[in-house]
Write a structure and sequence with these properties.
single chain; alpha+beta; Nucleotidyltransferase, domain 5; 3 domains; two-stranded antiparallel sheet; 29% helix; extended
């Protein structure tokens, strides 16, 4: 591999078993490597340079030489081809849990543990943050030299993207923010690149709106929307649960040398439902969704004529009929929102923008209602926690639910976790039954975990001890 231009040096890289590494001399001979068992009692590292060589008498003798050392490629190749001799399986250890690789291995070699891996639950913020999932807003990752920017307040903003979904990837064509009249679109005239710079335009607008103060941004299913912002933010940390985003932290540079801190929170980490369910959940008025999404495809969104002039009534009617969308209801909305131009063409961009705006307002009103309810019940601000689980965990600690309880981490927790079996529903004896003409009574029990926890806490005989090995 060569990096740079001109006379830049060639960087030799090796590839074995899907792992890249730098090829360089490693200070060991092939003979020493292949016969290392014979040198285990050597007092120093001189054995690594041992090599068999004929002396003047023609006898093979051990000598020390630097001329026969091998490189890293030969070293790894020899060891990999003789794994049983040189290598041992990677096991779950405390050090491995400090990397991102712990989920790739299963073997636990020992249950001996240090005090750091088993500790009493406390309500201190430091202990709470160390659980791994939760990083309160005011405790975001800090630079060594904390600057004024990180101490500036955060402003809540609720946003959404509208996208085309045909083709190899989803592409945004506009974005809206709750309470903002601005429609964020590609600022350039070339509509073939209709998805370019939309996220940047939105972030810059909000950074200037708040005069360089920080942003706490909310989206429902933010793991989807964050894709359209990813290239514009320098990410410090992204907190995931499986493949779902909980919250992301980073910096957005809106001018040369000027940036704001950005936190993006997925409201679905708290409210696992569709946005349309907010209507009943929070008693919000919502307009019935009347929109033929197939009309917003790569072909129409790449058309300058559609953006500048609009779409004919016949084409709109065709899309509505294809997707079984209420055409009369669609046109009623168009007249109310001023989407019918003097030419008779339909401004489908404005129509989509209005729905996107409504979604942002519903998200904002629903989340703020939810925030008020939780504050009243728990005295906790949901904005300080990345998921319902982390917020409830904090509430339990504050209420003393975990008093006298120990929390486990690393391989100790993994071992304990393997004793938990459940999650599946089955009939007696794990058999299938097909009873089409029989009335069935559902005796499924609920809240078994909290019921058991309550009984354990109330029982003076309940065990609250640290793990013991046998």
């Amino acid at each position: 591999m060569k990096y740079g231009k001109g006379d830049a040096p060639i960087i030799p890289l090796g590839l074995i078993n899907d792992h890249y590494f730098l090829i360089k001399k490693v200070g060991v001979t092939r003979y020493a490597l292949e016969n290392y068992e014979a040198f285990v009692n050597e007092p120093n590292d001189d054995w690594m340079l041992k090599q068999m060589k004929k002396n003047k008498k023609g006898d093979m003798v051990l000598v020390k030489t630097k001329d026969k050392v091998i490189d890293s490629f030969d070293l790894i190749d020899i060891m990999y081809k003789q794994k049983d001799k040189y290598l041992s399986p990677i096991t779950l250890t405390d050090e491995l849990y400090k990397t991102t690789l712990s989920n790739k291995f299963t073997n636990i070699p020992t249950l001996e543990y240090s005090d750091e891996l088993v500790r009493k639950c406390t309500i201190s913020d430091e202990d709470f943050k160390d659980l791994g999932e939760t990083v309160p807003v005011e405790s975001q990752p800090k630079e060594k030299n904390m600057n004024k920017q990180r101490n500036k307040p955060y402003h809540a903003e609720f946003f959404d993207f509208e996208t085309t979904t045909d083709g190899l990837k989803h592409r945004p064509y506009l974005a809206r923010v709750a309470g903002e009249s601005t429609v964020f679109v590609n600022p350039y005239a070339d509509r073939k690149g209709y998805d370019k710079m939309i996220g940047y335009e939105m972030l810059k607008h909000l950074a200037l709106k708040h005069k360089g103060e920080n942003l706490l941004m909310f989206a429902h299913n933010a793991g989807y929307d964050i894709k359209f912002l990813f290239d514009f933010i320098m990410w410090d940390k992204v907190i995931m649960r499986g493949t779902s985003l909980l919250r992301g932290y980073g910096k957005f540079y809106y001018e040369k040398g000027k940036y704001v801190m950005v936190s993006i929170q997925d409201t679905k980490a708290y409210l696992v439902c569709q946005l349309k369910d907010f209507s009943d959940m929070f008693k919000l008025e919502m307009r019935k969704e009347i929109i033929p999404y197939g009309m917003y495809n790569q072909k129409t969104m790449s058309s300058s004529e559609v953006w500048e002039k609009g779409m004919t009534l016949a084409k709109v009617k065709k899309y509505c009929k294809k997707e079984k969308v209420d055409f009369d209801g669609f046109m009623s909305n168009c007249h109310e929102w001023g989407c019918v131009k003097e030419s008779g063409l339909i401004d489908i961009i404005e129509y989509s923008s209005r729905y996107c705006e409504l979604d942002c307002e519903v998200l904002k009103n629903g989340w703020e209602t939810f925030q008020t309810w939780i504050m009243k019940i728990t005295n906790l601000d949901v904005n300080d926690y990345v998921s319902i689980s982390s917020m409830v965990d904090k509430y339990f600690k504050n209420e003393g639910v975990y008093d006298g309880v120990y929390e486990l981490s690393s391989y100790v927790r993994e071992f304990s976790q393997r004793s938990m079996v459940g999650g599946r529903t089955m009939c007696r004896e794990n058999k299938k039954y097909h009873l089409p003409d029989v009335k069935l009574a559902d005796f499924d029990a609920v809240s078994l975990y909290p019921s058991a926890m309550s009984r354990l806490i109330a029982s003076p005989k309940s065990l609250r001890i640290t793990p013991m090995t046998f």
